[in-house]
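User: Teach me something about this protein's shape.
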Amino acid sequence: MSRERIEWIVESCRLLRGIGDELEQTTPFAGRTIGTGIHLEPKTAALLLTLARGGARVVSTGNLNTTQPETVEYLRERDVEVIGRPTRDADEHDGYLRAVLAEKPDLLLDNGGDLFVRFLESPYHGLVGGTEETTSGRMRLLPLRERIARPLLVINDSPIKQFAENRHAVGQSVLESLLRITNRATNGRRVTVFGYGACGKGVAENLRSAHALVSVVEVDPVTRLEALLDGFAVPEREDALASADVIVTVTGAADVVTGADVPLLKDGAILMNAGHLPREIDVPALDAAAETVRGDAGDVRTLELADGRTIHVLTGGHMVTLAGPRPLGNSIESMDLGFALQTRCLEAVSSGAVGAESCVVPVPREVDERVASAYLALERRTSL
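Assistant: First, the predicted structure itself:
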């Protein structure tokens, strides 16, 4: 990605630019170190630079298989400390996360619970609290609330994050990623979406709009009923797997599709994960079920089975929207909203506006309202 492209994306984050102008005056993070483990791409660069404008020393590393080297270089040139390099190796990534914590950050901006879990393994004095970006992280950290005992606001539980990013933007970016990586039509293809939370709803809606025949697999019977009433087929899991040309996992859970499912899969089936962690599709187990594995260039991995069938796994089971060739992730506007929430929540934690009782809880209502009002004001100005 070119420097000009990164600049265009950063400058397009209008909310963050306005917040940054304010924070340069108020410096709510002066004297604070903020440690982050987050997908390093241009939109997160806009977030990290905004935090730095508020007086923070920012120390960051990426996530598995989503770090973009051009973004790392861009951040380092602007005095954001970036640890590590792009990697698909879990042990190497673990070392980078621990190196961030070795700097003893005052605030943690977590993504998937990686930093807070490791903090509890080797706690240090001075951690004030932080934020968690994802549903996956909330599920991981909720049982640890009593041990964390600090304010920790879950961005994904904001209604703004749910409808703007998860439902609308994730759905768009998953469809875009499928087209970008495979260059195959969705028209008339049978697609099975695992999970019907906000992200799953967006994925199912966008694929249906692209003329795919979409079914939903959902373990919660109430949510499964919702999918049915929204007009999606809700077959039993085995039937959904057996009929699918494309399978998308977006649950936050592990082992959604495993080696035991191989006998059910159609010849030529495409598997892709849109969840945060690369564990929803058990790629090692699928590999073990294959006679040969070929074409794994980081985008399409083809497994040839003994009976002559082939199965294709996109981006090694990593988050498909931020892996593979020319990954773009979610739309700028959706991430601008989500990262405005991040900034305001970190500001609230840093200032003491929220206390230890706010541990693994949703974004405060007043923060949601402040961010929504700011976005609506921008839209009014641009529509005049």
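Now, about its shape. The domain at 3-161+330-383 is CATH 3.40.50.1480 (Rossmann fold). The chain has two domains: 3-161+330-383, 165-322. If you'd like, I can walk through any region in more detail.
User: That's plenty for now, thanks!
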